[in-house]
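Changelog note: in this version the structure field was regenerated for every chain. One regenerated record is shown below for reference.
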Amino acid sequence: MIQLLYTVIAAEMALILTLLFKTPLRKLVIITLDRVKRGQGPVMVKTVAATVFAVLLSSVYSMAKIQNIKLEAGALNPTDEVLMARHMLESSLMVFLLFLSLMIDRLHHYIRELRLLRKTMEDAKKQTRGFEDGKNGNAEELKAMGEDIATLRKKIEKLELDCETKGKEAKTAQAEADALRKQSEKLLLEYDRLVEDNQNLKNQLESIGQSSLHSDGK
């Protein structure tokens, strides 16, 4: 489960980096996302997201139960500590996965809007040139067209600012991913230590049990 979450998160981060930088690969990614959002694609994506969210809620519920046990007993046994650490790691990864999915959806949306506005801008420029070249151009229509162009430019500037903001958010998300990766490595080391302690406790209990049986037999 944890390895799968790491793989999906790494793929999403690579996808975000592809969308942020203008490369030939970005066009292919955008076309692929356009196709995914058609037909049954959105339903499948929502189903997967709902499944991940349900698993996340289950992990949070499990952590709450373990926390209640700790409050009642005053301390946790090694097995519960291992389970608590594992649930915390899985929950963090699932939250980050859902966040990156939302980032990919918004970036794709803004890039599509920016392309449509640029195309509209080019069409408006062509129409403006046609009016300027025509001898019977209407001054009022040209003025209205100029106002439309100014409005479109403002929209383009706004979208460019939004894209820049999303880019900064993506960089922040990458930094958070690195922090989560380091945290997960620490948790895995702690997990291995707790598993080893648990095994040692089991061995000690078995030794004590065998000694008791031996004493009873005598």
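Spot check on this record: The mean pLDDT is 81. The chain is about 90% helix and 0% strand.
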